[in-house]
Design goal:
- By secondary structure, this protein is α/β, with parallel strands linked by helices.
- Among the domains are: about 240 residues, no CATH class; about 100 residues, no CATH class.
- About 50% of the residues lie in helices and about 10% in strands.
- The chain is built from 27 helices and nine strands.
- Strands 3, 4, 5, 6, 7, 8 and 9 form a seven-stranded mixed sheet that branches. A two-stranded antiparallel ribbon has the order 1-2.
- Strand 1 and strand 2 form a beta hairpin.
- Helix 5 packs across helix 8.
- The longest helix is centred in the last third of the chain and has 29 residues.
- The N terminus and C terminus are likely disordered.
């Protein structure tokens, strides 16, 4: 007695198999499919060849002018389907099973054929509507390099499925019990081989993969084989052994697997474009049906595959609306090599590509947002395309440019999607394609101008672009992390990576550090710490200081918070540490003030409202705060003068001094400052 999920499963009884239908019956069904649903001859023939009982299906269709078919509502229209058993040997699982999307090796990350077996070819691209066929016709076309490409992709998908969603034990004893969804798909070869058409699963690839493994056949051979006589002889042998009581357990398992229940998609009726403002195509409608099935599956796709699929659909919709070109769509999808990107005048730098993708998906233009919304809602029940979802879709596309250890891939994805904050979504910026040095110089100018103007919280678009570019190397190299949770973790700074990057882009030292991250990552070396002049910082032993998450959070705290203490004893170190002590003391004063105000009397009122605080103490504290406030204004003005646009970059010696009496100050400068503060 076989077991599935540790529960005994009684084997499904076996019955003799029907004969494979004669060519005349299959041709008659193909004719009706073409007449009733507008399918091409190749698609109709592939369906007719796979159906177990063509005569029964032909009769069920009825009159071609008003054919009978199951109508399945999806966003954008209704799919038309026919439920019927099909021969498993005449249908194939999808070679680009969505479960494998996060693990694929894209050409932008590694040139096909230069790495391991998993990057031998490009990933099989998304299916499209065949050329010259209306977008509502229920058939697909996939461009592949050669038959070997399809075999490779199919075997990669098989290995993944059998390792992560293995149905073989159940199917061996029960057969496939739930209908797989099939659609006629034509495979077009770049090596000038003739195109071939076969029924391909839109959903149920894991079941077909397990079924084919039990049958002992290679799925990718199905479109190329046409051996009717051999198939009939195989069925006859199985039936003879079964009727004679001589069928082996393996023969019985094969007989259960030769036929599978199927929903064959034969048509699509889109909604009236005049009412909705757009016309959904068949490929999108089919994805919608598959996505609806996987909202709450026994084995969910998970967030990674879901976002990968949604990101691909977004690119398709943007391309369909001519908001991006086919070349750009392939570039963003990671489907071109670095060499091909350069030939198309696109950057081969993953960080610059990342900035392009982030801006594409955070573009505030209404027509872009509308395209993204349509793409997302066509595959999911989400109604609100929010900042988190856009970050997740951008991250899915960005990470196609890197070859990451699968063990770290999910962690990198979780951290990177938190690397693009509100300013990225709302700010007026655009990728410029400038090299790192030019971008850093522009960002420094913006920071200094912002300091001079007193708006340091939003320096400008160049700092935003620099922060977006730098997010990838900092997270990818493990130099910047997200919230690691609370279990057994002492992590006082709970800021997201985006919040740390936001603090960095608002200071000269932060801008220098972001630029250094890009330079060091591009050079393949650990990311080093730098000061506000861009000079590499050294440890006490003379070695170069390498940044990590703790360093970045300590060196670039939120405004008003203290920086990490420095171990040295130079004037600059003492000045830095004293500033940190003052910041910590201000935090303590604020906490003590709040605590005093929260002390409650017996009658429930705050004690300060009942008793008050000694007037002499309050006056002394107010005098102290007034004196400090005056000094804070002076210090702030000095900082703006030293670091603003009207100054040259400070020298190391100058940063160690509180140079209030600059020769360019007027004699009444301090009074002017106090007047300004008032």
């Amino acid at each position: 007695m076989a077991k599935f999920n540790d529960t005994p499963v009684l084997p499904r009884p076996v019955e003799a198999l029907p004969e494979y239908a004669h060519a005349a019956a299959r041709k008659t069904l193909a004719d009706k499919l073409t007449e009733a649903f507008g399918l091409s001859r190749g698609a109709a023939t592939a369906i007719a060849n796979a159906v177990v009982d063509p005569s029964s299906v032909r009769k069920s269709i009825g009159e071609p002018s008003d054919p009978n078919a199951e109508r399945i509502a999806v966003p954008g229209g209704e799919l038309l389907g026919i439920r019927t058993p099909v021969w498993a040997r005449k249908a194939m699982p999808d070679a680009r099973n969505p479960r494998t999307l996060p693990s694929r090796r894209h050409p932008f990350a590694i040139d096909p054929g230069t790495g391991k077996e998993d990057s031998k070819f490009r990933p099989v691209p998304e299916p499209r509507t065949p050329d010259g066929v209306p977008r509502s016709t229920a058939e697909l076309a996939v461009d592949i390099e050669s038959r070997h490409h399809l075999v490779w992709a199919s075997e990669q998908a098989k290995s993944y499925v059998l390792a992560n969603n293995d149905w073989r034990e159940s199917i061996r004893t029960q057969g496939v019990m739930e209908a797989v969804w099939l659609v006629a798909t034509t495979y077009r070869h770049a090596d000038d081989s003739d195109p071939v058409t076969a029924l391909t699963s839109a959903e149920g690839s894991s079941r077909l993969t397990a079924d084919h493994d039990i049958l002992g056949i290679r799925s990718a051979d199905i479109p190329y084989e046409d051996a009717d006589a051999k198939f009939r002889a195989h069925i006859r042998r199985l039936n003879d052994a079964f009727q004679a009581g001589e069928a082996s357990p393996e023969d019985l398992a094969v007989m259960r697997c030769e036929r599978v229940p199927a929903l064959v998609i034969v048509g699509f009726v889109p909604h009236d474009a005049g009412q909705t403002g757009f016309a959904t195509g068949f490929p999108t409608a089919l994805k919608s049906l598959v996505a609806l099935r996987h909202v709450d599956p026994p084995t969910p796709w998970g967030e990674g595959p879901e976002n990968e699929s949604l990101a691909d659909e977004v690119l398709d919709e943007l391309e369909r609306r001519k908001l991006i070109t086919p070349t750009q769509a392939a570039y963003y999808a990671g489907s071109v090599t670095k060499e091909e990107a350069r030939a198309a005048h696109l950057s081969d730098d993953p960080a610059r590509r990342a900035a392009d993708i982030v801006r594409l998906l955070t573009n505030p233009e209404p027509h872009v947002r509308e395209a993204i919304r349509i793409a997302v809602t066509s595959q999911s029940t989400r109604k609100n395309v929010n900042q988190g979802l856009l970050n997740s879709l951008a991250t899915a596309l960005i990470l196609r440019a890197v070859v990451e250890d699968p063990a770290r891939h999910d962690q990198v994805r979780r951290y990177l999607r938190k690397g693009f904050g509100k300013a990225v979504h709302t700010g007026d910026w655009a990728p410029t394609g400038r090299d790192t040095d030019a971008l850093a110089a522009a960002a420094l100018d913006e920071v200094r101008a912002a300091m001079t103007a007193g708006r340091a919280d939003e320096p400008g678009p160049s700092t935003l672009e620099l922060a977006v570019r730098s997010a990838l190397p900092l997270v990818l190299d493990g130099r910047l992390s997200g919230d690691r949770g609370t279990a057994n973790n002492q992590q006082p700074d709970r800021r997201t990576p985006a919040e740390v990057l936001e603090a960095m882009r608002q200071t000269p030292q932060g801008v220098q550090q972001l630029a250094q991250a890009l330079r060091d990552h591009a050079a393949g070396r650990p990311i080093r710490a730098v000061d506000e002049l861009g000079v590499v910082a050294l440890n006490q032993d003379g070695s170069e200081r390498i940044v990590n998450d703790t360093y970045l959070r300590g060196e670039f705290p939120p405004p008003g918070k203290s920086k990490s203490q420095r171990p040295g004893d130079t004037p600059a170190d003492r000045f830095h540490n004293s500033t940190a002590v003052l910041a910590a003391a201000m935090d303590a004063v604020a906490a003590a003030f709040e605590a005093l105000g929260n002390v409650v009397s017996d009658d429930g009122r705050p004690m300060v409202d009942v008793k008050g605080v000694d007037a002499r103490d309050c006056k002394a504290w107010r005098d102290l705060l007034d004196r400090m406030d005056e000094e804070f204004v002076v210090w702030s003005r000095t900082f703006r003068r030293v670091h603003g646009v009207d100054s040259t970059p400070p020298t190391p010696a100058a940063t160690e001094l509180d140079d209030v009496d600059d020769e360019n100050d007027s004699p009444d400068a301090e009074q002017d400052i106090l007047d300004e503060a008032e």
